[in-house]
Design brief:
Elements: H1 11-21, E1 24-26, E2 38-40, H2 42-61, E3 66-69, H3 78-82, H4 85-88, E4 90-95, E5 102-104, E6 124-127, E7 130-133, E8 143-146, H5 151-156, H6 158-165, E9 171-180, E10 195-205, H7 210-227, E11 235-239, E12 251-259, E13 262-273, H8 275-281, E14 300-302, E15 307-309, E16 312-319, H9 320-331, E17 332-337, E18 340-345, E19 356-360, H10 368-379, E20 384-386, H11 392-401, E21 406-410, H12 412-417, E22 419-424, E23 430-434, H13 438-447
Helix pairs in contact: 2-9
Bound molecules: glycyl-adenosine-5'-phosphate.
């Protein structure tokens, strides 16, 4: 059995599997595609929903100090002035004077074009926010932005959530949604794209308690990836240096994964201090393009001290697409089996797009009614596939390649003993189980921790 070395999966192989099996397709492909845009296919959408569900379950459903939110992508443009994004959410950009290629200057070590070695222009700052216009008139007054992070939807709703849910500090607000950044150098498949999805928490604490909660979230979020099967040698935490910190951050760690292109950020966990609530509550300025906020009171009344306080914020911010890519890369294994290479995605059952495949041994008409009955029964609980094409060995391989943890085989003996075979993707072990106990047996395997 050959196991891959950590971080050594060929991205090309994964991209090709994703397209062939319906995880991820190039966007608008019949028109030649659109750079760095990707669409999730039938299996991709299932897996993406599973990643989001696993996150929501862990950080909202299983906690009593968290509530959810789903804010609009379009927000009042002043939001982005107050948050500092209009002023500071920019990357330095240089052009090569010889080959005209465009680069993020901070990615270049020795000041020369990485493509041809040519001289680069002086860097200029390029704001990453996508602009569009609201309503029929395309002028400065109608400019709105596609949100570059979901976080601001949480901050501007802070007082609404507080009033509606009667929370006391510490508590958090969680949100999943699309974000948009006009990245200068997108790439590496779904790792860096211009449209992506985030899973963000803003966790509000009393000033003074931020360090304790920062440590809590670093541990929680790191463990989440391990619990969902990421191999520990492929995961690490790395603290930002002072020159890397975003304009709002006092401290930040990245959860990094060993991607084929090296250690890269999966999720950032930042101590944002009271930066955002302070900015949004600051008075509106006469020239609102400067830095003015809403002027609204965003403090919390603290019964203990009898004072109104502006909470500090710990922010664990994860990318759905990046997480999904890491889970796929980590699960991808090629193994020698007899004279063949078996490709198997060892996905955690919670993430696998299809949980069970129902495989009648053949299309014999005697087998079909029982196989169909079992299929109908299992579909009420999970995403299940029915496959009766080609040999049973080929069908096992097809399911291995998409990460289906269990196959249920119905054979002629099943008609007599009312039992079927469960085949385990990882061990390839087979056990015989009475049909009457099948759902409970599978539930234990799929949903048990
Ligand atoms: N609210 C904080 C924030 O947005 P960030 O580090 O800029 O922090 C958080 O983004 C996460 O969002 C990243 O760790 C990454 O997983 C994901 N992300 C950011 N930009 C992305 C992009 N262009 N493509 C895909 N995912 C991205």
């Amino acid at each position: 059995m050959v196991k891959r070395a950590p971080g050594k999966v060929d991205m090309e192989k994964l991209v090709s599997l994703c397209k062939r099996r319906g995880f991820v397709f190039p966007s608008s492909e019949i028109y030649g595609g659109l750079a760095s845009c990707w669409d999730y296919g039938p299996l991709g959408v299932e897996m993406k929903n599973n990643v989001k569900r696993a996150w929501w379950r862990k950080v909202v459903q299983e906690r009593d100090d968290m509530v959810g939110l789903d804010a609009a992508i379009l927000m009042h443009p002043q939001t982005w002035v107050a948050s500092g994004h209009v002023e500071s959410f920019a990357d330095p950009l240089s052009d090569c004077k010889s080959c005209r290629q465009r680069w993020r200057t901070d990615d270049i070590k020795d000041g020369r074009c990485p493509a041809c070695g040519g001289e680069l222009t002086e860097p200029r700052m390029f704001n990453l926010m996508f602009k569009t216009f609201m309503g029929p008139v395309e002028d400065e007054a109608s400019v709105v932005y596609l949100r570059p992070e979901t976080a601001q939807g949480i901050f501007v709703n802070f007082q609404n959530v507080l009033n509606a849910s009667r929370r006391k500090l510490p508590f958090g607000i969680a949100q999943i949604g699309k974000a948009f950044r006009n990245e200068i150098t997108p790439g590496n498949f779904i790792f860096r794209t211009r449209e992506f999805e985030q899973m963000e928490i803003e966790y509000f604490v009393k000033p003074g308690a931020e360090e304790e909660w920062f440590q809590h979230w670093l541990k929680e979020r790191f463990q989440w990836y391990l619990d969902l099967g990421i191999q520990p040698e492929n995961l690490r935490l790395r603290q930002h240096g002072p020159d890397e910190l975003a304009h709002y951050a006092r401290d930040c760690y990245d959860v990094e994964y060993l991607f084929p292109m090296g250690w890269m950020e999966l999720e950032g966990i930042a101590n944002r201090g009271d930066y955002d609530l302070r900015q949004h509550s600051s008075p509106p300025e006469a020239d609102s393009r400067a830095s003015g906020g809403s002027g609204k009171d965003l403090t919390v009344y603290d019964e203990e001290s009898g004072q109104h306080i502006l909470p500090y914020v710990i922010e664990p911010s994860a990318g759905v697409d990046r997480g999904l890519l890491a889970f796929l890369l980590d699960a991808y294994h090629e193994e020698e089996d007899k004279d063949e290479i078996r490709v198997v995605l060892r996905l955690h059952p919670a993430l696998a797009p299809i949980k069970v495949a129902v495989l009648p041994l053949s299309r014999n008409e005697k087998l079909v009614p029982l196989a169909r009955e079992i299929y109908a029964q299992l579909r009420r609980h999970w995403m299940v596939q029915y496959d009766d094409a080609q040999s049973i060995g080929r069908r096992y391989r097809r399911q291995d390649e998409i990460g289906t943890p269990y196959c249920v085989t119905i054979d002629f003996q099943s008609l007599e003993d009312k039992a079927v075979t469960i085949r385990d993707r990882d061990t390839m072990a087979q056990v015989r189980v009475p049909v009457a106990e099948l759902v409970e047996e599978l539930r234990g395997r799929i949903e048990g921790d």
